[in-house]
């Protein structure tokens, strides 16, 4: 039986770190360090709300495991040098890593991506799946290379449902077992330098951050597109929504229905939607 690997984990929340840690430990490996990126992009100001998340991660940190809070790829790599890692596993990490850092661990870096690659490469696969009205998404574990989500695939599985009222909490319930199963498969394959299948060139798409125009309702879109736009914001937060001007008043649209319901009727390109929850946009927003 192969000796267990020393593993570093990079992720974004307590539940996510715990799932990765347990999966690695169950497979006979030892996570020795966590890293949490405090901004969506390296060398940028710390994102809002990070102190709360860091506090939660720290409180749940396993005994003997260190927590790094890098501000740049260079800082991350320099810090990781001292851990003599066999493998780095990333989930929910938006930075592009340089080649020298990818080569620091003996067996490279694995990335877990919430789509069936090559569909929805980039930082926001779940948001784009909801925006496009996809009924489900999947999980891909691949070797990380210098481009975004293009490396060879070690494990992949679809079938994770995206119901109309999906939230991060409900999605995690369905996604986490698939993620852990596929990571287990990838851990079994990662030490083979030939392990992994090249991604297909057909069907590749990019799921970038939401463009500014998406923050306003456009009634030239179909009713389904507007409904999915509102669903996308609701997934990001229950008090988030695109804005619409109704009878001269700017509203933040929080929830909509495609069937007649109590609320404000909004006519779109092909049919109406009913705004079932909204709130006025504060002056200055």
Description:
With 285 residues, the chain is of the alpha/beta class. It folds into 2 domains: 6-189, Rossmann fold, CATH 3.40.50.170; 214-280, Formyl transferase, C-terminal domain (Methionyl-tRNA Fmet Formyltransferase, Chain A, domain 2, Roll). Helix content is 27%, strand content 24%. It has helices at residues 14-26, 50-59, 73-80, 99-102, 125-131, 168-189, 223-236; strands at residues 6-11, 30-36, 66-68, 87-91, 109-113, 136-143, 153-161, 243-246, 249-257, 264-267, 272-280. Strand 8 (243-246) and strand 9 form a beta hairpin. Helix 1 (14-26) packs parallel to helix 6. The longest helix is centred in the middle third of the chain and has 22 residues, at 168-189. It is elongated, with a radius of gyration of 21 Å.
Q: Look at the structure and give the mean pLDDT.
A: 96
Radius of gyration: 21 Å
* Helix segment tally: 7
Unreliable parts: none
* Beta content: 15-25%
Largest sheet: 7 strands, mixed
Total number of distinct structural domains: 2
First-last Cα distance:
60 Å
Global structural class: alpha/beta
Task: For the largest sheet, list the strands in their spatial order.
Answer: 3-2-1-4-5-6-7
State the helicity in percent bands.
Answer: 25-40%
Coarse shape: elongated
CATH class of the largest domain: Alpha Beta
- Which CATH-level-2 architecture of the largest domain? 3-Layer(aba) Sandwich
Which H/E pattern describes the elements?
EHEHEHEHEHEEHHEEEE
Q: What is the number of beta strands?
A: 11
């Amino acid at each position: 039986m192969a000796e267990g690997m020393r593993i570093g984990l990079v992720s974004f929340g307590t539940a996510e770190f715990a799932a990765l840690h347990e999966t690695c430990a169950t497979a006979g490996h030892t996570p020795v360090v966590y890293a949490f990126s405090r901004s969506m992009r390296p060398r940028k100001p710390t994102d809002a709300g990070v102190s709360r998340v860091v506090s939660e991660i720290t409180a749940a940190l396993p005994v003997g495991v260190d927590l790094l809070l890098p501000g740049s790829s260079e800082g991350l790599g320099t810090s990781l040098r001292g851990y003599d890692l066999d493998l780095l596993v990333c989930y929910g990490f938006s930075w592009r890593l340089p080649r020298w850092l990818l080569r620091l661990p003996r067996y490279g870096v694995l990335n877990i991506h919430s789509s069936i690659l090559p569909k929805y490469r980039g930082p926001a696969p779940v948001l784009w799946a909801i925006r496009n009205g996809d009924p489900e998404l999947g999980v891909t574990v691949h070797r990380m290379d210098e481009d975004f989500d293009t490396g060879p695939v070690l494990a992949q599985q679809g079938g994770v449902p995206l119901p109309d009222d999906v939230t991060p909490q409900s999605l995690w319930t369905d996604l986490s077992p698939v993620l852990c199963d596929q990571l287990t498969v990838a851990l079994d394959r990662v030490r083979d330098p030939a392990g992994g299948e090249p991604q297909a060139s057909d069907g590749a798409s990019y799921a970038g951050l939401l463009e500014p125009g998406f923050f306003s309702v456009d009634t030239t879109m179909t009713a389904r597109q507007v409904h999915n736009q509102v669903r996308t914001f609701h997934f990001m937060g229950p008090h988030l929504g695109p804005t619409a001007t109704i009878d001269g008043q700017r509203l933040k649209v929080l929830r909509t229905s495609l069937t007649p319901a109590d609320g404000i009727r909004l006519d779109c390109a092909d049919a109406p939607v009913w705004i079932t929850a909204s709130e006025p946009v504060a002056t200055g927003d």
